């Protein structure tokens, strides 16, 4: 279980959110919403310890993440705005490189790339791919990772409608198997999720629905 307790973050003397509290349990997905600049990415980064919050703490499995940072991050799959694809490598080589450094449930790169619609493009350099195909290479990792908590910053950016549907199906299978997902998105989720929570960041506070 992930617990966010009293999280407060300022940037450039502006309070992005104050005293934010929420819990994310197994099988739950939480969507963080808000206008551009509201602080959604900052919140994700603060939860992961990549940005220092001004106040508050994050608890993972009953213990502060600062006391178990390495262990915590081993159980997290994070997809940020910069999704760490080497354009000189092929999609297949990118997955091979990534899986050497991260906990995976399998090394079936061909299957993962097929899932994200990149059949036939597995072995050409990523710089020859479109923006959406590039993004799909990064998202193929979701079919390889075995981490419990997925933290995804705008995962649908540049993805077409069928890709969005496919991703959400993958989300559902992860949740069914006991996973948790925290994501930002400017789009409403189109699939039914049994346990969907929403956090709306406004001017300076998070409102939990
Ligand atoms: N590297 C940075 N240095 C200083 N201030 C920053 C930095 N990144 C973001 N900020 C400030 O923090 C605020 C929140 O940014 P953040 O990226 O968290 O917003 P967001 O809600 O994710 O926006 P978007 O929807 O545009 O992705 C912004 O208004 C910006 O002024």
From TrEMBL:
The keyword Ribonucleoprotein does not apply. Transmembrane segments: none annotated. InterPro entries: AAA+_ATPase (IPR003593), ABC_transporter-like_ATP-bd (IPR003439), ABC_transptr_haem_export_CcmA (IPR005895), P-loop_NTPase (IPR027417). Residues 2-209 form the ABC transporter domain. This is Cytochrome c biogenesis heme-transporting ATPase CcmA. It holds the Pfam family ABC_tran. Gene3D superfamilies: P-loop containing nucleotide triphosphate hydrolases. Keywords: ATP-binding, Cytochrome c-type biogenesis, Membrane, Nucleotide-binding, Translocase, Transport. NCBIfam families: ccmA, PRK13538.1. The gene is ccmA.
């Amino acid at each position: 279980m992930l617990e966010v307790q009293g999280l407060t973050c300022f940037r450039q003397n502006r309070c992005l959110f104050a005293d934010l509290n929420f819990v994310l349990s197994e099988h739950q997905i939480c969507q963080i919403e808000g206008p551009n600049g509201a602080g959604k990415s900052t919140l994700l980064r603060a939860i992961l310890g990549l940005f220092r919050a001004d106040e508050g703490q994050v608890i993972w499995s009953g213990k502060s993440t600062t006391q178990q940072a390495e262990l915590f991050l081993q159980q997290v799959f994070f997809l940020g705005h910069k999704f760490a694809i080497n354009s000189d490598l092929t999609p297949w080589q990118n997955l091979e490189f990534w899986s050497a450094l991260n906990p995976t449930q399998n090394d079936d790169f061909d299957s993962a790339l097929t899932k994200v619609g990149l059949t036939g493009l597995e072995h050409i350099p990523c710089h020859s791919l479109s923006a959406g195909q590039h993004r799909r290479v990064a998202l193929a990792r979701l079919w390889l990772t075995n981490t419990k908590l997925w933290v995804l910053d705008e995962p649908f950016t540049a993805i077409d409608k069928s890709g969005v549907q496919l991703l959400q199906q993958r989300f559902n299978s992860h949740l069914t198997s006991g996973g948790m997902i925290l994501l930002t998105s400017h789009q409403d989720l189109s699939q039914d999720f049994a346990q969907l929570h929403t956090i709306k960041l406004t001017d300076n506070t998070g409102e939990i629905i």
